[in-house]
From TrEMBL:
ATP binds at residue 101. One of its GO terms (cellular component) is nucleus. It holds the Pfam family Pkinase. Belongs to the protein kinase superfamily. CMGC Ser/Thr protein kinase family. CDC2/CDKX subfamily. It comes from the Eukaryota. Keywords: ATP-binding, Kinase, Nucleotide-binding, Nucleus, Serine/threonine-protein kinase, Transferase. This is Protein kinase domain-containing protein. Residues 72-343 form the Protein kinase domain.
Length: 404
C-alpha cells in the first residue's frame, strides 16, 4: 500500500486549474457516495467531517477525471425542459449515436444536483433491455474562469430514435395489435425490473417511453424515481409526482404512502393511448382530472368511454380496466399484467417491433423539432398551474419537455 501511495505522489505536479478540478471532483464523489446511504450531505463541511478516512484516501490518490464532453460531437438539440437540454450527438471514437442530457447547475449551491445523483445511482442498478442505457457521466472542461469554476455535466445515454408520444402524434404511422402487445410486454418487463429492484418510477407517461430503431421499448427519465421500502408503517413520500394526465386517483387525493401501483396506473393510461393516439384523460386542474377519472372508472364500457368501440381488443379493454382500478391495492402489478390472457391469445406479441420502426424514416425527435408533432405533451403540472387540453409548446417553442 505504501509503495502505491509513493508511486502516485511521484506524478507530475498539477496546474492550478487541474488542482481546482480535482478538489471539485472530490466533493462530487463524497456527495455521490453519501447518496448511497440514503441522503445527500447538507453542506460540504459536513461531507468532509463524516468522511475523514475517505478524504485521506482521496488525497493520497489522483483519481482519473470524468470523460470530456468534447469526445462527442453535438448534432441536434432534441429536448428542452426544466432539467436542462438534450442533444443528439455522435461519439467521435466509435461513431455511435448518443443522447447528451445536460444537467442544470445554475441553482445548485452544493455541487452536483442530488436528483441527478439519484438518477445515476438507480440507472446503475437497473441494467435491463427495456430500461434506458446510461453509458457514462461526462463534463465540459476549461470553464474555470467563469461560472464559479464549475464544469457542466452531461449524462450520456444510448440514443433511441423515437419516443412514444412523438410516434403516436404522427398519424401516418399505423400501429397493429401485434405491435401494441409487443410494446406493452416490453413496458411491463421494464416495470417488473424497476419494481423488483425496489424503485418507484413516479413519472410514467408516453413521452418517457423510448423506442429504438431495432424495435425495443425502453423506459426513461428517472429524475423523479426513488427507492421504496416495505416496512410497517410504510414510509411517507411526496404526492407531488407524476404528470397530471397520468396521475392516479390516490395521489390526487393526497396519499403519501403509495406503492408501485402508481406506476401501473400510468402503464394503463399509456396502453389506452396506443389506440386513442392522445392521452385519455386531459384535465387542466387536479379537480378536473379527478372528475374525469371518476367518470371513466371502474369498468370501462361504451357508456363510460365512447371511444372504446370496436377498435379495441376485448382482452385489451379487460387489461386496461384492471390497471385503471381506483383501489391501488387491487390494481395489477407488472408480473400479473405479464400473465394476463391479452398476451396469450392471437395475434401474439413478438420479440420486437422492428418492422414498425422500419416504416418510420425520420427520427420522431427531428419530426417534433420540425413542427410535425405537439411539443411538450403531458408535461408535469404543479399546484395552481393550469394546462390546456391541447398542451402548449415549451418556451423554446419546439421541443418535448422530457428527460432521457
Amino acid at each position: 500500500m505504501n509503495g502505491q501511495v509513493q508511486q502516485h505522489h511521484q506524478q507530475p505536479q498539477m496546474t492550478p486549474d487541474e488542482m481546482a478540478e480535482m478538489d471539485r471532483q472530490k466533493v462530487t464523489l463524497l456527495h455521490f457516495l453519501d447518496s448511497f446511504r440514503g441522503s445527500a450531505p447538507t453542506d460540504f463541511c459536513f461531507a468532509f467531517q463524516v468522511n475523514q478516512s475517505l478524504i485521506k484516501y482521496i488525497e493520497e490518490f489522483k483519481f482519473p477525471y470524468i470523460s470530456d464532453v468534447s469526445n462527442y460531437e453535438k448534432l441536434l438539440k432534441i429536448g428542452q425542459g426544466t432539467f436542462g437540454e438534450v442533444f443528439k450527438a455522435r461519439c467521435k471514437k466509435t461513431g455511435k449515436m448518443v443522447a447528451l442530457k445536460k444537467i442544470l447547475m445554475e441553482n445548485e449551491k452544493e455541487g452536483f444536483p442530488i436528483t441527478a445523483l439519484r438518477e445515476v445511482k438507480m440507472l446503475q442498478q437497473l441494467k435491463h433491455e427495456n430500461i434506458t442505457d446510461l453509458i457514462e457521466v461526462c463534463s465540459s472542461k476549461g470553464g474555470f474562469s467563469h461560472n464559479r469554476d464549475r464544469s457542466t455535466f452531461y449524462l450520456v445515454f444510448a440514443f433511441c430514435e423515437h419516443d412514444l408520444a412523438g410516434l403516436l402524434s404522427n398519424h401516418k404511422i399505423k400501429i397493429s395489435l401485434v405491435h401494441i402487445k409487443t410494446m406493452m410486454k416490453h413496458l411491463f418487463n421494464g416495470l417488473w425490473k424497476i419494481h423488483r429492484s425496489k424503485i418507484l418510477h413516479r413519472d410514467m407517461k408516453a413521452a418517457n417511453v423510448l423506442l429504438s430503431r431495432d424495435g425495443i421499448l425502453k423506459l426513461a427519465d428517472f429524475g423523479l424515481a426513488r427507492p421504496f421500502y416495505m416496512g410497517h408503517p410504510r414510509q411517507l413520500y411526496t404526492n407531488r409526482v407524476v404528470t397530471l394526465w397520468y396521475r392516479p386517483p390516490e395521489l390526487l387525493l393526497g396519499d403519501r404512502q403509495y406503492t408501485t401501483s402508481i406506476d401501473m396506473w400510468g402503464a394503463g393510461c399509456i396502453m389506452a393511448e396506443l389506440w386513442t393516439r392522445s392521452p385519455i384523460m386531459q384535465g387542466d386542474t387536479e379537480q378536473k382530472q379527478l372528475t374525469m377519472i371518476c367518470n371513466l372508472c371502474g369498468s370501462i364500457d361504451k357508456d363510460s368511454w365512447e371511444k372504446v368501440g370496436s377498435c379495441f381488443d376485448e382482452l385489451a379493454v379487460c387489461l386496461i380496466d384492471e390497471l385503471l382500478t381506483l383501489d391501488p391495492s387491487k390494481r395489477l402489478d407488472a408480473e400479473k399484467a405479464l400473465d394476463h390472457m391479452f398476451f396469450y391469445t392471437a395475434p401474439y406479441s413478438k420479440d420486437d417491433f422492428k418492422d414498425l420502426m422500419d416504416t418510420v424514416k425520420t427520427s420522431q425527435f427531428e419530426y417534433t423539432a420540425g413542427g410535425g408533432a405537439h411539443a411538450n405533451r403531458g408535461r408535469p403540472v404543479g399546484a395552481g398551474q393550469r394546462m390546456p387540453h391541447r398542451p402548449q409548446v415549451s418556451q423554446t417553442g419546439q421541443f418535448h419537455d422530457m428527460i432521457f
